[in-house]
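the two lines:
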Amino acid sequence: MALSTNFLNLLFGRPLATSEERAEHIGPIAGIPIFGLDALSSAAYGPEAALTLLLPLGLLGVKYIVPVSATILILLTIVYFSYRQTIDAYPKGGGSYTVASRNLSEGAGLLAAAALMIDYILTAAVGISAGVGALISAVPSLQPHTLQLCLAVLVILTVVNMRGVRDTGVAFMIPTYLFTGTLLIVIVAGAWQVLHSVGHPHPATPLPAIPAATATVSLWLLLKVFSSGCTAMTGVEAVSNGVMAFRDDTRRNAKITLTIIIVLLAALLAGIALLCRAYGIAATNPDGPGYESVLSMLTRAVMGHGVFYYVTIGSVLLVLALSANTAFADFPRLTRAIALDDYMPHVFLLRGRRLLYSWGIYVLVVLTAVLLIVFGGVTDRLIPLYAIGAFLAFTLSQAGMVMHWKRKGKARARMALNGLGALATGITAAVVLVAKFVQGAWITALLIALMILLMRAVKRHYVRVARSTALARPIVPAEVREPIVVVPIDRWSRITEKAVSFALGMSNDIRCLHVQTSDEPDEICRDWEEKIAAPLRNAGKCVPQLKILQSPYRYILTPVVDYILAVERESEAHRVCVLVPELVVRHWWENLMHNRRADLLKVILLLRGNRRIVVINIPWYLERD
Amino acid sequence: MALSTNFLNLLFGRPLATSEERAEHIGPIAGIPIFGLDALSSAAYGPEAALTLLLPLGLLGVKYIVPVSATILILLTIVYFSYRQTIDAYPKGGGSYTVASRNLSEGAGLLAAAALMIDYILTAAVGISAGVGALISAVPSLQPHTLQLCLAVLVILTVVNMRGVRDTGVAFMIPTYLFTGTLLIVIVAGAWQVLHSVGHPHPATPLPAIPAATATVSLWLLLKVFSSGCTAMTGVEAVSNGVMAFRDDTRRNAKITLTIIIVLLAALLAGIALLCRAYGIAATNPDGPGYESVLSMLTRAVMGHGVFYYVTIGSVLLVLALSANTAFADFPRLTRAIALDDYMPHVFLLRGRRLLYSWGIYVLVVLTAVLLIVFGGVTDRLIPLYAIGAFLAFTLSQAGMVMHWKRKGKARARMALNGLGALATGITAAVVLVAKFVQGAWITALLIALMILLMRAVKRHYVRVARSTALARPIVPAEVREPIVVVPIDRWSRITEKAVSFALGMSNDIRCLHVQTSDEPDEICRDWEEKIAAPLRNAGKCVPQLKILQSPYRYILTPVVDYILAVERESEAHRVCVLVPELVVRHWWENLMHNRRADLLKVILLLRGNRRIVVINIPWYLERD
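prediction for all of em together
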């Protein structure tokens, strides 16, 4: 109750009724920022990561970016078509976990679940610190505040996300479309210049010289380049996880959103690769003094160093920082899906005031904050851990779809498409794992194994509870008895009236309990006959007993507990109901004044009672005068 | 429930039943460490504080310590006798608050309450940091860890106190008696040497020379010396607050304890003053390089620099650090007394697992920790704030006792004694306030005013609640109706059986609710007739309705909430009871797996329901297989 204050309403929006669920559903316009930020923003670091590894090859390296990007685009196309099929087959949300566990095996499902959960947490931490890192390379004086900036971004993302799906989409629309729009303009303008200069455009501002080659081409190098470039594909599975967030017709809206995201991403990746080659843009050493990001060089080569440059780079920073948002959109849906199968605690099933799976958000925020704090907001070291989870999940999802079509016994073409996807993403996963193993991918592998053990332990717990409460025999009607109702009362008041009325409605054996702390009889002793006993007797109703407990030391709880335990002992078969008024207050701080005694009474009776005591809170709504 | 783990039992002791209350009561042997630590430990800083202010007088200053101490001892004697009378008059605990509010006025009581609360918090912070300060002056390498050491002492005090009154007494017995014993031995041995050397003893180890006088005697100086020396009297009121902690006969045991504490304190104060004069021990400049405490100089002058010296000084350090404990013993009793009159939130009335007023301890610990952290563990600046509260409370208590005797219309002698006490302590309070006002006593005055405003606000809240729930008319028997009982069920289990049995015992209108998430009918639909409906029908009992709610998206809470709200709307006068099983688990982490849905259901229904919904938790005890 303490939650419904004005402050919370202002921050997180008013609580939504479940009937407003439909209004919270989104279309493609809002869906692209929510589910596409992660995928689209990776255009800002995927090509850069590949070009950095190509640096030792000098000028040749810049040429290789085109075939490497082409390979990644082919893989992206395969993945796109197979996720379209997944959306069709699983309209209630078919993340890799659902597809793998339904079609392959429990173990495959858990593997996908663990891989994806770890991947989402890394996405959130890496996205935030990449955005803040880009900001700091623009404004170096902010350097000492790296961690504070990261945590501030995390808080902003949390608050925006706690407002619900629709508000999140609206909030992130501008940065997303600004980012995509400006980059597309750069690409189109660049292509125009390339065509007009017959393939040899002049950069508007001078570019750094490409360093001389220090290594020769090897398959191993190209594999590493490919696996680094593949980070551009993380986040593609997001839409298939969140199909339920879309408006009717959900499948169609989800597929339109996925298509737009993939087309935009492909255009960005292809454009960046081609322009880098045409302008001769190589990466600069990220640890060196003259570091400049590839997108920055590309933008000023095409557009010059003017206002447009700053708008573009500003939107890149913003989108990088906000790319963590995809994790916020999908992680809670993923944990909900896992909890539905009893592999995660059931709290992840609960929807909070804005119809979100709040616990998923809490866990994501806490773990992301821990990562950011432990690494001081500089998560470069986390990047090697990243992308394995995504490709493992891709592979399991595609393989699951193959079995799905096989079981349906038709659609050979679809089966072949998903098979191709599984093969391609499986090989990629293996390449990424091998290429990055010593750099830290082993940590991801270890964490995945631990997560699987943990999820199995949770499942075992639920199975044990289900087994220990299982019952084969039917109900025993003889055990149905009216309960003995105990009503502790203080004085005659509206609250007392509600409690006594309630008690009379459920039983004929009612004991009203009054603790007397002074020597002369309290008011209630005089009120009893007039206000309660006489009217009930005259109406032919049952009259409760009044039991006065003396307490010279003014303890209240102690005599009440002792009396209730004595009643329970004496009445061997009856249940004992204890009615305790609970004030429902308007302001959170009013809770400090009330309610605790009821809570404590309940805990004491649960711990010390003989299992036949039930404490019932009778709500009383406290109003302003 | 989560509280009853093995770890908590080990740390805080097993939960006590209220029937064990008597065993928790203490005699004088344990009472002295609990209620006397603060008073006795002040022998370690009271004389030192007076001697430091006498430093400018040179040799003359050392002579003045005797008359100043004599004045303090006279005041102590007056206060002693009047607190004896308070214990007799208020055997249920007669702190200054109780005495002042019962006999003078509400305002006087609140003034005493605010003064004492602030004084106790300062006692805790100053005591801990004084002890740690003494330790650091012995082992300077610990300097960088001052705050950590202070917080560690706070944690130890908290844990020991959470174990309950008796365990606390036992734990603090050894340091208290060691401190008193060694100091008394020093005093007796010193007196012996003084007598044998005809008043001119030779110190066993050389003492620092007394610096030359830099000022002359003035009344103002002597008043400041007196008011500093009076810090030796803080903590004397502790016993009268805690009379209820003693065994039968409580008054006698409390008075014996008070007598022993006062006699010991007087002996220490008198002995220290006389020996300082005889040996010519002046204070050393606490900020200077050659600082040494008065007790340290005295001990090595009498006993030499051997093992006994180290044992004595060690026990001084320990007792200083533990003197904060008196605040732990009395603060919760004080807040309870205030809460009984509705001036503090009622949580302060609740007694926790070891029969303590746990919330009083929590608040004391948090505020002390805040003070220690804000001041970095160096609370020298707090000392001026200190002692005013104590003397204000003394004065109000004595004045209250005067009115008490006056109302009783007899015992003129007693009235005169308390009147003398009120006068003496009142003058002292005024002196302390004036002497220390600019040094920070104004902060105490301000805080006291704020506390009084806060307590009045709390009272107003309770009065408003009482007024808004007041009811003049008698109960309306026609409003007594059987409730409609809604029982959400999952499958046929022991838990379901308990809930359905309970529902049948309280009403004949029962709706069992099942949320079906899959397409084919769940198990419960098949079990219903066989396990529930048929047996009840055959036994002639009422048969509940079974209501199946379809939920293709596998939401559980949403359809249940919607159904319950619909039932409430349709049934205009009946109350709607919702029975929700609540698992009582054995390990705290099992709570992560369960119960949250019941809590959330309750909150949602409280917020959105139309005030006729009552959520009832049916406890189910989860056992090991």
